[in-house]
Structure prediction request, 331 residues.
Amino acid sequence: MSTIILAIESSCDDTSAAILRDGEILSNCIANQEAHRLYGGVVPEVASRAHQLNIIPVVDLAIKEAGINKGEINAVAFTRGPGLMGSLMVGVSFAKALALSLEIPLIEVHHMRAHVLAHFAEDPKPEFPFLCLTVSGGHTQIVRVESPSQMEVIGKTIDDAAGEAFDKTGKLLGLDYPAGPIIDKLAKEGKPVFDFPEPRIPGLDFSFSGLKTSILYFLKKELKTNPDFISEHLHDICASVQDRIVSILLKRLRKATRKTGIKTVAIAGGVSANSALRAGLEKMGQKESWKTYIPKFEYCTDNAAMIAVAGYFKYLDGAFADQSVEPAARL
Ligand code: KG4
Ligand code: ZN
Prediction:
């Protein structure tokens, strides 16, 4: 008999549901929330209200696209945290209610672990142990992955996340939120002619707040003599910022491979959708003789398919949650 898992992800501003059968993704549906663009960032209250509106249609669609019926689902996996409390609450409550009504088990999933395990949504899958650079809007980590359940963070940001560095730069440049994909696109027609400083942080940790400040001062100075500086140099500014963020990430990753001796290297999280990071990883991987793994775009940013994959590993281990489980914003 096959095992079917319904997964729900609602940690930030995207409502997503996926169906997985015996490790294979049958559907992965996402409702994006456009409203946050108006505010230049995710507004928690707006996000949780939109999750409430979206969750039933998204789950229905995932079931329909997978071509299954509700009665065939064996377990409900959901993101317990980390994330926005109000957003998590919608997904967790829905998952609990559904599991209760269908009389099937619940599986709680850690959002950041799921980003790492997104690599198991399709072939080729990385072999253990591997290093995963997990870069999103809220996190920047180098994770040493020994098994689906054994992971250790060996490097992390001490201030902003890489996604935040993109998004905050975008705000300074007057771009919409989230600015990461916009900067990626604009950078394609620019050159990294402006030199932004690299942080001096010991070990495997990251820092991006200094970069943000130096961009701010750089723009202030240039705008004094040329009020049109941003519009005249937008592509080159984007290319320069992106180049620096990517070089910070890849240099740390290289340091981690040398320190651990692990040469199987993966990237995950929303920022792993960045074209310069993907190309840079391939290039460095060839030079350093790494085996590199880059997820499909749809499995980089927040999605329920990765929650389903992580949930399936737990299902096989019999690691279920009970109805007393609560969302954990800082899991
Ligand atoms: O993993 P994710 O979807 O949500 C979180 O868990 O945070 O990551 C969202 C982040 C945002 O900061 C967004 O700007 C960034 O990923 N992002 C990108 C790209 N696509 C998404 N950053 C740079 N280049 C991209 N192509
Ligand atoms: Zn995420």
Q: What stands out?
A: Residues 111, 115, 136, 269-270, 302 surround zinc ion (ligand 2) (CB under 6 Å). The two ends are 34 Å apart (CA to CA). The longest helix spans residues 229-260. The first strand starts at residue 4 and ends at 9.
